[in-house]
Amino acid sequence: MVPAAFVALETLPVTTNGKVDRRALPAPDYGAAATRRAPRTPEERTLCEIFAEVLGLAEVGIDDSFFDLGGHSLLATRLVSRVRSGFGVELAVRSLFEAPTPARLMAAIAGAARARTPLRPVERPEFIPMSYGQHRLWFLNRLEGAASPYKIPIALRLTGHLDREALRAALGDVVDRHEALRTVFRETGGTPHQVVLGTDAATPDLTMETVTEEELPEALLRAVAPGFDLAVDPPLRATLYALGPDRHVLLLVLHHIAGDGWSMGPLARDFSLAYTARLGGEAPERDPLPVSYADYSLWQRQVMGGEDDPDSPISRQLAFWTDALAGLPDELELPADRSRPAVATYQGGTLMFRLEPELHHGLLGLVRDNEASLFMVVQAGLAALLTRLGAGTDIPLGSPIAGRTDEALD
User: Fold this and answer.
1) Predicted local confidence at residue 35, as pLDDT
2) What whole-number distance in Å separates Cα of residue 340 and Cα of residue 135?
3) How many whole angstroms from its chain centre is CA 71?
4) Does 1 have pLDDT greater than 60?
5) Residue pLDDT, tens place only, 10-48
6) Pair 303, 116: CB distance under 8 Å
7) Using a CB cutoff of 8 Å and minimum separation of 24, what contacts does 393-399 make?
8) Higher pLDDT, 334 or 150
């Protein structure tokens, strides 16, 4: 019954009725809590260390909530993966939402099934199948062609002396290390599959262009616009813009089939290490990667089973989503200030806005009350708004607070 943290306030926030406004209370700083309970067993100690590593904290107590400490859905996936390898059990991500503290999660771990077959390098067949994620993006690429919007542009400002030859060599080093950056997708007998190219064939040409600061935005847009032919084009392009003798911008355009937001960290780290080594006239020294994405694709097909087996995990997932999405309209009929174009152009803009502290505190209060993530709460509010605008009442919310969308919106 000892509180996990204490917060000192000059005054308590109150509602218009004079009652304590619990949702306006600031979130506790658990990192500074002096009352944190330490692990009681070696297993709890291991789990607390996993929590701390994933969250980037020095220490976590057994009663500290993953989401109060800044956790979200993507970090939850990483934590469950670490638990799987550390404890050898199969744990669903939703288990962390239901038991967000190390003390409570230990009970779920104790009752969990043994972990599935681990991911390891395997002998590759003549035709390497795609992962389900690759197959989805390949299909969209074939459907939409050059208009496909699944590209990730990264623009890096480089200040100081730049060795262009070292930069070119570093690009080759990164492509050589990561097979996903040199994989194309071709069809044999009507079935698409992966083809891993050699490093020389897949390393992007470092196109160079001299521009002014004013010309740079338009130049970046031009470079990002062209699509990828995934049967021919490696999924990485590179352009270097010279704004002055010691001012450059490096643009990397990565197709989503080869990476995502989490991939940017390893990509930037490996590229930086490779460039530093090449500046010294040497190739980077690194331990080889334990597995490649092709190994993952083969592992995923083994674990998920075939669609022809009604009891396989992939068949059960397909049945669930077929039922969940049955009857939904192809598009949402929402009020708009102009007519929908006949062909999607994917041209849009970004609208920046600010949430006031009071609203943010209220959202965090709803998060704590429902043991959800901030993303879940905001998604539920968005679904409620779309429903009020006429999108219908059957929008799947994917949130533990699906039945409380009016409260989320309020």
Assistant:
1) 65
2) 29
3) 13
4) no
5) 889 988 778 888 888 887 776 554 567 889 999 999 999
6) yes
7) 394/327, 394/328, 395/328, 396/324, 396/325, 399/372
8) 150
List all residues 6 or more positions away from 128 whose beta carbon is below 8 Å from its beta carbon: 193, 194, 195, 196, 294, 297, 298
Structure-block tokens of residue 142: 């074939």
What is the number of residues in the chain? 410
Residues 6+ apart with CB under 8 A from 73: 93, 373, 375, 376
Beta-carbon contacts of residue 161 (< 8 Å; ≥ 6 apart): 246
Q: 279 and 166 in contact (C-beta within 8 Å)?
A: yes
Asked if residue 55 lies in contact with residue 74, where contact means CB atoms within 8 angstroms, the answer is: no
Give the whole-angstrom CA distance, residue 141 versus residue 36.
51
What pTM value is reported for the model? 0.78
Contact 255, 150 (CB under 8 A): yes
- Calculated CA dihedral for residues 20, 25, 28, 34, nearest 10 degrees: -40
Q: Helix, strand or coil for residue 35?
A: coil
Residue 152 has phi, psi (to 5 degrees) of: -120, 105
pLDDT at 406 over 70: no
Tokens, residue 197: 């190219």
Q: Give the residue with greater pLDDT, 226 vs 333.
A: 226
Q: What is the pLDDT of residues 120-178, one digit of tens each?
A: 999 999 999 999 999 999 999 998 876 778 999 999 999 999 999 999 999 999 999 99
Please classify residue 60 by burial: count the beta carbons closer than 10 Å to its beta carbon, then call 0-12 exposed, 13-18 middle and 19+ buried.
buried
User: For the chain, what is the largest distance between any 2 Cα atoms, rounded to a whole number of angstroms?
Assistant: 73
Q: CA 14 to CA 73: how far, in whole Å?
A: 32
pLDDT tens figures, 385-396: 988 887 764 544
172's tokens: 């080759």
Most confident range, picked from 56-70, 291-305, 341-355, 361-375: 291-305
Compute the distance between CA of residue 138 and CA of residue 145 in angstroms, rounded to an integer. Answer: 10
Dist CA 254 CA 259 (whole Å): 7
Q: Are strands 247-255 and 236-244 parallel, antiparallel or unpaired?
A: antiparallel
Alpha-carbon distance of 237 to 73, in angstroms, equals: 30
Rg over alpha carbons for the chain, rounded to the nearest Å, is: 25
CA 309 to each of CA 174, 313, 324: distance values in angstroms, whole numbers, following the listed order:
39, 9, 20
In terms of C-beta density within 10 A (0-12 exposed, 13-18 middle, 19 or more buried), how is residue 340 classed?
exposed
What is the C-alpha separation between 370 and 381, in angstroms, rounded? Answer: 14
The label of the residue with tokens 């409260």 reads 407
